[in-house]
Batch of 2 targets.
Target 1
Amino acid sequence: MSDEAKWFVVHTYSGYENKVKANIEKIIENRGMQDQIHEVVVPVQDVVEIKNGKRKVVQRKVFPGYVLVNMLMNDDTWYVVRNTRGVTSFVGPGSKPVPLSEQEIRSMGIEIAEPVMDIGVGDAIRVVSGPFENAVGMVKEIHGHKRTLVVKLSIFGRETPVELDFHQAQKV
């Protein structure tokens, strides 16, 4: 079992990629596994389609039937992902998942570097977009791998933790 997160490929029923992504993310949230399963990705690319003489840009799955998961591999994470509705198996020989190499990850355009932020835990921030726009709160957690912050905002007079993407927050 590794103590470093790696990217694994999960095989899904065809057409269930986004559902599997949503299901895994829901389980991560419900079981508090954010420190073990970091990111779930369905790689897509923009493709120009021409229908009835009109050009239209649509997103197509790069690997239909597959989802990429950045996680620490252990018995718990293996079980959670493997038993998610819509997942058929991990990619690898037998029941042993094989992580992707850095070369494979880069060739897919997945960014490995952690983003650099000038915001730290305890800093005051202003929400610049989304449903909580213009709200001011204090940073409680930073999840660099997911590019999110957990911020305490005062909502209806109560301190409430809210998860925001990095681009939604600005240091006050």
Target 2
Amino acid sequence: MSVIRQADVIASVADALQYISYYHTPDFIRAMGRAYDMEQSPAARDAIAQILTNSRLCAEGHRPICQDTGIVVVFVKVGMGVRWDATLDLEAMINEGVRRAYLNPDNKLRASIVSDPAFKRANTRDNTPAVIHTEFIPGDEVEITVAAKGGGSENKSLFAMLNPSDSVADWVLEMVPEMGAGWCPPGMLGVGIGGSAEKAMLLAKKSLMQPIDIGDLIARGPKTQLEELRLEIFQRVNALGIGAQGLGGLTTVLDVKVMDYPTHAASLPVAVIPNCAATRHIHFTLDGSGPAMLEPPNLDLWPKVKWAPDAGARRVSLDGLTQAEVVSWKPGERLLLSGKMLTGRDAAHKRICALLDAGKPLPAGLDFHGRVIYYVGPVDPVGTEVVGPAGPTTANRMDRFTDTMLGKAGLLAMVGKAERGPETVASIAKHRSAYLIAVGGAAFLVSNAIRGSRVVAFPELGMEAVYEFEVRDMPVTVAVSSEGISLHDTGPKAWAGKFAGIAVAVE
């Protein structure tokens, strides 16, 4: 009979969260490498190169792959023969591990969890509590799977109660375009079928913990109807042409996972949850012999891909930027930004627009006229860093504020990730503005372009405060031009159907 010590649970959870913050799983790296080799879309290929380069930098430097270091989700299987040497309950042990991981001074992770979610939304400051799912199984060991799920991908989760005669694949194909690119493709889709409403969602989440093996499945052929469904969804989703970051390309999903459970005869619950390009999870077992030992992956696994700016990229000075220059930017054009830009996310935008709509002045020193804003909530810096990993957040959360920011605040352009809504695209055209995207899943690479940082307003908002960044050659792509042409519309249309017939390499 194993005796599981409290200290071993805490240390193992903390180590696992640090580990997955900077190490991609080997199966993901191999799959992304194959996607890079296969990709024919220049924009998508550039995005995948940034993701792979960022991944290698994070593995070497032990810094987060993405600035959104996730909500912690833990699946625990407790052997019924286990004995405990503990004063805390299991949930408290896991949360203490989360706390230690996120406050680790050598690699402090961004605390994103807020309590009182419907009202005050106060940050808990240590990313607790985790979402914990526990089951009891035969045996005398404890199996733990730790995942860190980013908000951009989690927000795209969808659920439906279909009719029993409906096609699951057809429903998923209808839903994927509605997800947009805010989940940072290419990644994985987890599909849960059956049970009850909450069971289907849990199945979809659990399926994402499985390894990427679609190449093997293609090579040997499906043996079950669920495997046939996996292949059908994989091929049809990639044929949509959405591509990396939604820019249009051959690979939108690296794999599709499906889990099912018996359900009511009148029901067909179906859930789909995407995992982003910063997919983070690890499994370990505690048997009473001590904390889990997590072996670092071999850096030789990473493909020999080193991103460099496009030779044809236009260098742009943000200091003294004019509307005439913004108007000259073309959809899909690569830019390298240098100079000073402001930052802001949901909380800051809400405060700023409330002041502007009330005719009140903005905080002293905060002026958006002729400026560019970057939608970002950075990780705290460590050591000599100016700022920690600072990749873009999903831009359409700021859509409701955009017309006010462009009209009343005098903003010239915006930087974020994923598509903008049709009303926002129309507002961008009306104000002769532009929307630029940085690559989601390349946060450490992007932060290397940031040479200075200071808080300008709302310091109490923490990572959601307004900062002023000084950047040098920050890589972005023109996603919406001043004419209102959206690359997230034109790119996928240009690549739709081209995945058909593409050979997927064996694992």
